[in-house]
Every structure is written in structure tokens, then in C-alpha cells.
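input
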Amino acid sequence: MKRKQKEKYKAKALKPSVKKHLRSLNMSSEYAYFAWCTRNHFLPSYEKSKREMAAECKAQAREQKSLQSQARLHHNPEQFLRDACLTQLDLELLHRPGWREIGDAIANSNRDKKQRQQLLALLVDLHQKTKLVFETTTLEGQSVYYIQALIVLNNYRSQWIRQPKDWTPNTHNIHGQFSSLLEHLFVQYEPVPAFMDAAWLRTDKCAKTYRQWYLHLAAGQNMRRVDVGVAFTKKMARHFVQAPSNYSIEAAINWAHIHALGGDRRLVEAVSASRIKTKGVTHPFWAAVVRFFIEHPMLDRVHVAPIADYLQAQKFAVREYVTGPGVLEKVLPPQPTLSMRGRTPDALLNQVARWHGRLAKSSTAENVFFKKSGIPEFRKKVGEKKEDAWQIRELLSGAALVLESRKMGHCVSTYAEACASGHCSIWALEYVTLKGTQKRQTIEVDRSGMIVQCRGKLNRYPTRAELSIVKQWSHAAGLSLSVYVARSVVE
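output
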């Protein structure tokens, strides 16, 4: 309260009955009492009726009970889990980091009483053995609580072949414990590839399908013998389970398809850092593009992304232009019937180079502006006197992309539409000195927070020094770095 209000209260005397009431509420002073009344929507006055004092006593008792409940929740994880599963928990009382998110996840799960009791038994058992219940992991650049996966596992209990009470963790690594739990619950014969663990953490429209894939593999079945939505050949099925553990499930599909066609890991990672990733290598046209690269192994994989950008623009890109007040005109792609038949690497690279040249003169994207992605920019001073600096800044307009394209000799200006729609953001890595600014790399970050491309002038790979700065930025900004970018270094 303000000073004038304090003086106003001190100028009057409390009635004896109110003084006794104040002591029963354990109030240390008149000021504390009046502040409490204001906070709890009671009238701060010097006279109180018996009815008013009774109402205040009940309110104070409820407040004390609430505070005790909050203290109990913050010091007893098992009691928190019981209350979250079996009662209507007040999430506003939760202030311990992560507990509100966990309580919210449980509140949004199946409300069937039996299901909740089974979930509670599972969570309490796991909490006694591991910290898994309250931990998070990173999935495609986003932080995800394991509780989401544990709730899903509880819904699949009819598929368990062993009980969680018989499971004992064999590692201190949290994700290793999660993998071990999955293996204990579902796997009959050989272990399921580690990248399939993500099926239980995902919540997108593909998650349910991928969980069926996991159960199918856990039962010792071949990927060819299930309706998986992808036509797996015998070779694809064999290569799929051999994909690296740090791949996403979609990247593992690309790995299987490309290796079945005769490709290698370098081509897989180049494709995963190009537009082909979002289209899918199982698409008939892009499958033909992949076969083209396989048939020409001496074509440097640095050209995969630029060629994919060129083919996308020529065959699929539909552009929209405002030609008058309220008039929107659509322009069809230049070569909608384009195919890879009869093409040679040299001719295709010449076409890409001429296209880049036309893009450098084009201004069709210059009037487009983008919203900030929310990712923080980066600046690091270097040198003895700290006069020079590395900086990474976001490009927020089509004009900035066109300028970047002209300076660097690549096709980043074609990303204006993707940036405007929020599918990705484009960043410039620059070295700033007193003499001016040197452009070093252009960086693409996808909507999941993964750095998927990092290219210099004429699409060159980053140097070790440049990649080191990109890694520092990714760590500071909470981004992830694709395997392809992490390995693509020029000496």
C-alpha cells in the first residue's frame, strides 16, 4: 500500500474484536492485515461483523492449505504424479521448471480412470528407477518431454511383451534408458534401429504410422511385409535398418532408397540438404534425378542442391504477380514437362549457371518482406584489439536475397517465397573489418531449427574457421546442425 494509506490506517484504532481476529489469522501488523484483505477481495476496515470474520478465516485456511499443497508438490515428485494422474491438479500452483508442462501433458491424456491408474503405476515405477519421467530430449531442433512418449507407451500396453516393473536401466544416459525401455517392452528378437525411437516422441500425422513400423520391426518382421505407405524393395528394406542412428525416419527412407539404387552416404547427405528432401526421393521425378547423380558419380555432390533448385524452378514453381489493382496473375513453370532423359552433367551445369545469371539480374522478389524467425543473431569480436568481428544476420526481404545472390553467385534469391511462408530463414555469415564487410557464407535454417545448408561464393563449402563460427552460433541460438553441413568443409 501507499504511504498515505498506511498513515490513514494508523490514525484509527482497531476494535478489540478485530485485533483478536487479526491474531487468529497470524497477521503480524495492521498493514499486513489490510494488504491481505485487499489481495483476497475483502473490505479493509476497522470494524468487522462476525460473519465477515468467519469468511476471512475460511479464506485464510484455504490459502494456507493451497500453500502447503504447493510446497508438497515441489518436494515430492511421486505425490505430484499421483495428483496429476488422479485429481484435477491446479497447474497455476506449479512453479518448478518443467512440472507445469508435465502436468499439462497428463491432463490432456486419456481421462479414463483405469487408464490413469495404469499410467500412474508406470510413471512411479520409472521414477524410482530413473530420471526419465522429468527429462527432455531434442527432436528436430525442438525440446520434447519424455512424458509425452511415456503416455503413448501406456496407451500401447496391449502390445507389451514384458512388464516395465521387470525392467532395469543398464546405462546412465537418459536416451539410452528410453531405448532400453522400448526394447524391453516390445522387441522379441533383434533390436530395432535407434532412429525409430523418435516414432514414440513425435506427435505429427506420421507418428502413428511410424509406431506401427516400430512394432512391425520389433516383432522380427521385414519392412516389405507390411503396408507402410512406402513401396520398399528387398534392397531398400535391408538398407533401411542400416541407416545411421542420428538420422530422422524420413532421412532413413532416403538412405534406403538411394543406397538401393547404388548411391552412397555422401549423396544421401547432399540430397538431405537440398529441396529433394521435402519432395521425397520416392517421387517419380526426383527418383529420376537421384538416379542421374548415381549414374554420374564424378559429378561433385556440391552441385546437388543448386541443380535441385534449378529443376524445381523449371518444372514445378508457379509464380504469382500483381498486375493491377486487385489483379493476381499466375505464371506457370517454364518447363512443366522437363525430364532427366538424355541430360549430361556438363549441359545441366551450364543451364544452372545461365539461370543463376538471369536470377542475378531479376528483381521479381525484391518487393517481398519476411517476418523475423525469432532466432537470435550472432556477433563475435576477434583479433588482438577486437576491432574485427564475425557476424551472422538474418536476411528479411527479397531485395536482401537478390543482393546476396548477386554477391555470392548462387540462387538464394529463389528462396523468397519459402522465407515469406515461414518454411525457412536465410542468414548471412560476414566478416566485418574497419575496411568493410566481407561476405563469407549464406545459411539456410529450416522451420524446425536445423541448419540444412551453408554455402559460400559459387556454392563452395565453408572453411573450418567459418564452420566453427556457425557451430558457435547454433549452440548459442539452440539450433541443430545437419550432418551434411557438419561434414562439408573445404580446406
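quick obs: The radius of gyration is 31 Å.
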